[in-house]
Structure formats: structure tokens, C-alpha cells
């Protein structure tokens, strides 16, 4: 029985293949050492978690199987690397076993799973109604099966590490290093995800396009470091007033975009109001335009319409007499939130 949970991407494929491989390997192990059930676990930080099972263990949830790896195990004097202990009363009840009699003693047999030149590992345990003397006769074959199980666990762990590394690289590829917001690639990916999720459910979405006014003037008069500070402050101020499912991206040098899922016209107007209030409070000069998906038909067209409205606003703005110092505004955004 597979116990490894479903995942996504490489992890999902790795889990599927590991489930199939471990299940097949347990059948081979059962052929060499027939017991009432076998359970394979992988070591974590402090405990062993079940990943595959058959026989008596098959119908039990992982939370009930995990304690079986604990207990006082005695070393098997005849077979190096194997351990055993008696099944206790709670385990008998959990496994739906008849109470022990003098002639019916139930054992758990354990072997560590660790392949050469690999990290991590786990263990396999089996349950028997009597001491499995056949283990002594088939020890080499059983050890080969256990090595195969250990290699599968190691390969599965390494594939999961590769998945995590790939996700980190993908995350970095979608983030703007200066602000920590989405970059253009991440923004496009986010819009595609919202489009795919929304389908024909009728829920609307809003896009707000924002463009810093006079960033070049700040760079020329206060230096590019001040310009970078202004860009970071803008990203922080925008992020502070967004809902948890809203997203912000830096789409160019001085251009930002906000996409709000499940937005009503009133909710979109409120978002624009929060943005204007927060940005005005820290004296950030910015132009913005908002559009609803219901107006444009697709998020790509919604972004274009919001962009047009943003530039209409920008064309009407005069050059200010004095540019604010970015350092004076940087400490003012902590009081803003989406509510």
C-alpha cells in the first residue's frame, strides 16, 4: 500500500514511482521472508515515518503505524543487523490480533535501511506470529531486498531535494531582486494562473498599473541609490495595503502592477483609494490607472486598458517644484494595511 503523499511537479512523479517501486520490493521481500505484514519507514529529524506497507499494516493510517518503529528492540544474536521485540497489547488491538497465548507469541522484526554512499535512510519492520527462523536460512536474499528498499528511499529523497531546489530557482527567477516583488516573468505567470483558475466562474479581477513620476529627477538630483530607495519604498507601500490574495509586480524600472482576484467594482475602487492614500502619505509621486477584467475580457487586455488610463493621468501632471527626500518618507509605511 502506498503511503507517500501526493505532491506537485517532480515531487508528484517521484512519489508515484517510489510508491510503485517500494510496493513491488515488499512483494519480493515477502517471497523470501513470508510474514503477516511489512512496513517501511524513512527517518526524519527525530522519528521514522511510514512510506509503504502491506499485509496487516495495509489498512492502517500512517499516524497509527508510526509508533511501531519505537520501543525497546533487542539485537538478533543469529542475524547481524536485525532486531526484534514482542508486540504489546495496544499494538495487538490496533492490528486486530488475537491475544497471545503460550504457544502464540507475536514478534516485530526490524532491519535498518541504509545504502552505501547515501544519506538518510530508514527501516523495515515485519510482524510474525512466531519467530521467523527462515530469516537465518535466507539472510542473504533478505539483505539484498533490504538494500533495494534503502536505495529506493535514498533516490526518492534526492529527487525531493531536486524538486525543492528547482522550486527555489523558479521562485528566484520570478522575483525582482531590488524589491522582492514579482518581476515581469513572475507577473505574467501570476496572470496566467489567475486566468486558469477563474475559468467561467464569473468572478471578476482588477489590475492597477502604477508608474513613478519623476524617478529620473530623483536619480539626477539625489543619486541612483536614492532612486533605488524610492523604488523599494514604493514596493513596500503598495504591498502594505494589499489583501493576502492580491499580487504586486515590478514590471519595469519605475512601473508596478497590482492584480486583485475576486474583485468587485467597489472593492477595486477601495484598493485604488488605499493605494493613493498610502503613497500620498509617504509623499511618493505616482500615476495609476485601474481596469476590471469584465471591461476588457482578458487579463492581458485588462492590463493594457489600465496602462492606458495610467498614462492619461501621467500626461496631466506638472513637474513639482521640489522632490521629496526619500529618506524622510521611508519610516512612514508601517501604519498602512489592507484592513
UniProtKB/TrEMBL annotation:
Signal peptide: none
GO cellular component terms listed in the entry, alphabetical order: plasma membrane
Biological processes per GO annotation: cell adhesion involved in single-species biofilm formation; negative regulation of bacterial-type flagellum-dependent cell motility
Top-rank EC class of the record's enzyme: transferase
Coiled coil: none
EC number: 2.7.7.65
GO terms assigned for molecular function: diguanylate cyclase activity
Record-linked InterPro entries: Diguanylate_Cyclase, GGDEF_dom, Nucleotide_cyclase, Rev_trsase/Diguanyl_cyclase
Catalyzed reactions: 2 GTP = 3',3'-c-di-GMP + 2 diphosphate
Limits of the GGDEF domain: 203-329
Protein's name according to its UniProt entry: diguanylate cyclase
